[in-house]
Inverse folding.
């Protein structure tokens, strides 16, 4: 019997021998697959359905059932040549690597990718958050030797308040301005459905009006058992109906003709970026709602400690600050500087 303990120490020290940042994305050599590749590849493992992670035209795609459904809805045929669904917690052996998807708590179907090879365990987080979200499975902590983390909000200035507090701000504004439409900019995948679920949880049971671009993913969430309450199309609705109503729209629609039809609108945006007052102001946002689907600074800091990994790789966002934070904890850490991840719209 080989001395497995030593083998583990040797290989745990060097996951970079088999998991490599490349211009196409993170590549697992023994398994011969990329995680969230930036260009079409033969074998892709996709963490979740956001456009900067789930790109078109990979030959073989492995992801959760929900992520595959989202990709098919958004990309049609281009979702991939063959699509292979994996449930959370299920494992698959690929060329000496055992791959397991575990919940990331980011959006419906979002997964962390756990890779085990020669006694070394790597977890690639994808995008994640730690707080509860009624629209998706909660983040699961997996201890590992190497943790590859996002850092979208990896600066101490980003501390997301409790969701209920932000929803209460919105409901308060509706009471103060009962004649005004409250038009909220939300990203179509995840944020839209989360805001709806949080409103319902807060007891708001009136119909919510949706911009056309948001309808299909809301229907998909409902098909997957996420109840969103009564929804109506905003396009056909009269000004009388929209007065005092909540209207959800993609952030891009807020500035254009579409939102000018609304009766005296209160413009809101639900995003972690709304923490930055200047950014809210520039975009003409009267009611900034700090609701994010990403870990804030405290969650990132806590997570890189709790996974107990000796080494941290930081993939996108404010990489340097989180790398420094990991160093302060006595961990090995590096910024991967992978291009192509745009969480501006989160
Ligand atoms: Zn994402
Ligand atoms: Zn991302």
């Amino acid at each position: 019997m080989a001395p497995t303990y030593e083998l583990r120490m040797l290989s745990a020290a060097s996951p970079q021998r088999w998991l490599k940042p490349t211009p196409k994305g993170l590549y697992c050599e023994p398994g011969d697959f990329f995680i969230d590749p930036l260009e079409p590849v033969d074998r892709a493992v996709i963490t979740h359905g956001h456009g900067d992670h789930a790109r078109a035209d990979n030959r073989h795609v492995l992801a959760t059932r929900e992520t595959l459904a989202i990709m098919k809805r958004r990309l049609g045929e281009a979702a991939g040549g063959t699509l292979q669904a994996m449930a959370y917690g299920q494992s698959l052996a690929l060329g000496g690597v055992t791959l397991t998807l575990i919940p990331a708590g980011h959006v419906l179907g979002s997964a962390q990718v756990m890779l085990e090879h020669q006694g070394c365990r790597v977890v690639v987080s994808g995008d994640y958050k730690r707080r509860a979200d009624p629209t998706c499975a909660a983040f699961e902590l997996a201890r590992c030797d190497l943790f590859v983390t996002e850092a979208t909000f990896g600066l101490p200035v980003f501390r997301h308040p409790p969701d209920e507090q932000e929803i209460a701000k919105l409901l308060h504004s509706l009471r103060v301005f009962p004649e005004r439409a409250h038009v909220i900019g939300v990203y179509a995948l995840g944020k839209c459905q989360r805001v709806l679920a949080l409103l319902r949880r807060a007891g708001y049971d009136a119909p919510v009006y949706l911009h056309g671009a948001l309808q299909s993913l809301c229907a998909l969430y409902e098909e997957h058992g996420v109840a969103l309450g009564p929804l109506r199309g905003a396009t056909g609705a009269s000004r009388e109906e929209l007065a005092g109503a909540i209207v959800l729209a993609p952030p891009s629609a807020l500035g254009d003709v579409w939102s000018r039809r609304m009766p005296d609108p209160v413009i809101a945006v639900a995003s972690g970026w709304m923490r930055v007052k200047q950014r809210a102001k520039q975009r003409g946002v009267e009611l900034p709602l700090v609701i994010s689907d990403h870990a804030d600074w405290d969650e990132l800091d806590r997570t890189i400690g709790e996974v107990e990994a000796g080494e941290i790789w930081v993939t996108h966002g404010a990489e340097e600050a989180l790398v420094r934070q990991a160093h302060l904890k006595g961990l090995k850490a590096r910024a991967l500087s992978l291009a192509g991840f745009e969480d501006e719209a989160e």
